[in-house]
């Protein structure tokens, strides 16, 4: 495997996530990875579709709740993003090896919040299935300034919250089932990559209930 980060870095991130339920990692993407993923994002902007809420037959579009457009990534079709797939493989390996999770899959999409877009407070779990275990968000914005909005607000266990600016190459990871969060209205187009590490493939989830 092509290693992206040192084990020492990983262990400190994983420790923080176990302790606080979330961790913020700056410069998670090196310059080359950032440029590759951002270029891919920009060249596919036409292919994004309006995001809904809920899974499977429960999926509905509610612009008052969620205003982003998404593009679901596919490892075979989007093989040119191998730098990203390597990084995801490494992340899955670390969580399985050091957090005793049995992650068996993942799902990732690119997200574009146009000016004014937001996402109300939610957990990253669906009623219809609950296999999302770790959420990962990576920001693809260049020159994000204070006042541009679009912060991710994360609610801590004690009810207090923290505002995270969606700056270039920053990654936020959190426990999908227990961390309420929302995206504040963005005052300019906001680009990100969001994914979930899954406890078992969704198809299997349907059988297992
Ligand atoms: O873009 C973000 O900061 C978070 C997005 C999010 O919460 C989601 O897509 O579920
Ligand atoms: Fe979310």
TrEMBL record:
<dbReference type="Pfam" id="PF13640">
    <property type="entry name" value="2OG-FeII_Oxy_3"/>
</dbReference>
<dbReference type="InterPro" id="IPR051559">
    <property type="entry name" value="HIF_prolyl_hydroxylases"/>
</dbReference>
<protein>
    <submittedName>
        <fullName>SM-20-related protein</fullName>
    </submittedName>
</protein>
<keyword id="KW-0408">Iron</keyword>
<dbReference type="GO" id="GO:0031418">
    <property type="term" value="F:L-ascorbic acid binding"/>
</dbReference>
<feature type="domain" description="Fe2OG dioxygenase">
    <location>
        <begin position="99"/>
        <end position="199"/>
    </location>
</feature>
<keyword id="KW-0847">Vitamin C</keyword>
<keyword id="KW-0223">Dioxygenase</keyword>
<dbReference type="InterPro" id="IPR005123">
    <property type="entry name" value="Oxoglu/Fe-dep_dioxygenase_dom"/>
</dbReference>
<keyword id="KW-0479">Metal-binding</keyword>
<dbReference type="GO" id="GO:0071456">
    <property type="term" value="P:cellular response to hypoxia"/>
</dbReference>
<dbReference type="GO" id="GO:0008198">
    <property type="term" value="F:ferrous iron binding"/>
</dbReference>
<dbReference type="InterPro" id="IPR006620">
    <property type="entry name" value="Pro_4_hyd_alph"/>
</dbReference>
<dbReference type="GO" id="GO:0031543">
    <property type="term" value="F:peptidyl-proline dioxygenase activity"/>
</dbReference>
<dbReference type="InterPro" id="IPR044862">
    <property type="entry name" value="Pro_4_hyd_alph_FE2OG_OXY"/>
</dbReference>
<keyword id="KW-0560">Oxidoreductase</keyword>
């Amino acid at each position: 495997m092509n290693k992206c980060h040192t084990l020492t870095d990983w262990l400190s991130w994983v420790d923080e996530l176990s302790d606080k339920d979330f961790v913020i990692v700056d410069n998670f993407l090196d310059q080359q990875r950032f440029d590759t993923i951002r270029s891919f994002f920009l060249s596919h902007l036409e292919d994004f579709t309006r995001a809904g809420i809920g899974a499977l037959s429960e999926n509905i579009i509610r612009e008052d709740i969620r205003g982003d457009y998404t593009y679901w990534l596919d490892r075979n079709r989007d093989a040119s993003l191998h730098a990203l797939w390597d990084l995801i493989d490494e992340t899955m390996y670390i969580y399985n090896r050091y957090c005793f999770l049995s992650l068996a899959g993942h799902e990732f999409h690119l997200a574009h919040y146009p000016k004014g877009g937001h996402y109300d407070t939610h957990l990253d779990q669906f009623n219809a299935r609950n296999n999302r275990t770790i959420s990962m968000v990576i920001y693809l914005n260049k020159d994000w300034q204070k006042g541009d909005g679009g912060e991710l607000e994360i609610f801590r266990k004690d009810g207090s919250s923290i505002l995270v600016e969606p700056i270039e190459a920053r990654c936020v990871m959190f426990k999908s089932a227990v961390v309420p969060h929302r995206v504040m209205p963005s005052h300019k187009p906001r680009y990100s990559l969001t994914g979930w590490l899954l406890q078992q493939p969704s198809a299997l989830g349907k059988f297992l209930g």
